[in-house]
Amino acid sequence: MIEAELKAVVRQSGALLRRLEGRYGPGRAEVYRDTYYDAPGGELLDGDRELRIREVEGADGSRRTLLTYKDARVDEASGSKPEYETVVADAGAAHGIVRGLGYLPRLAFEKRCRNYAVERAGRRFLVTLVRVPGLDGVYLEVETAAAGEDELTPALAAVRELMAELGIEHGDFTSELYTDAVARRGRGAGGGGTGRAGR
């Protein structure tokens, strides 16, 4: 499966939130705590690949943990990548297994999200408003699944159409990765850096 996803800077977050709530309901507030792992020599991130453990906490106190591997991007403009993801029962065990296999944590940060599940024209979308503590601005992510590279172009077209209906304009799109922005912030504060990784 390829994650067909686009990201945009939100210029008027209040207006967009009202538009989303009016169309799709109140949304689902969640906090993502993401840890990106890499081989000691940096082979994963240097190769545009990602190994991530995401701990998700819902507003109702619910918790779940996702283990994700993303291969190198197959579309440079959107950054879309083949993705393999599974739910794991124990976050501590997941971290222990990944570390035990020799991978090291390279970067960790939090995303505060409000998610909307959207279905239209036989396709499912995840629409997410995102804030990352320490970074300026609000972002909109819209993603859907493409079964293969031959389906990626129409999938991205459907994502762009939905974002346009939500008021996103051409100049609002961004390919900057949260990991790059967080790493720059860390270097500015005297912290370490990282290679390219995910959204």
Question: How would you characterize this protein structure?
Answer:
By secondary structure, the chain is α+β, with helices and mostly antiparallel strands. The protein has a single domain (2-186), classed as Hypothetical Protein Pfu-838710-001. It is 27% helix and 39% strand. The protein has helices at residues 13-24, 43-46, 91-100, 149-165, 178-188, and strands spanning 2-9, 28-38, 50-58, 63-70, 81-88, 104-120, 123-131, 139-146. A hairpin with a 4-residue loop joins strand 3 (50-58) and strand 4. The longest helix has 17 residues, at 149-165. 29% of the residues are buried.
What is the 3D form? globular
Proportion of residues in β-strands: 35-45%
Give the C-alpha Rg. 17 Å
Number of strands: 8
Provide a count of the helices. 5
**Whole-number tally of structural domains:** 1
Q: Determine and state the CATH class.
A: Mainly Beta
Spatial strand sequence of the major β-sheet:
1-5-4-3-2-6-7-8
CATH H level: which superfamily?
Hypothetical Protein Pfu-838710-001
Structural class: alpha+beta
CATH structural fold name: Hypothetical Protein Pfu-838710-001
- The averaged pLDDT comes out at 92
Could you name the ranges where pLDDT drops below 50 across 5 or more consecutive residues?
189-197
CATH structural architecture: Beta Barrel
Measured between the Cα atoms of the first and last residue, the distance is 17 Å
Series of H and E elements? EHEHEEEHEEEHH
Largest sheet: 8 strands, antiparallel, barrel
Share of helix, binned: 25-40%
Organism: Streptomyces kaniharaensis
Protein name: CYTH domain-containing protein
Pfam families: CYTH (PF01928)
Domain CYTH: 1-184
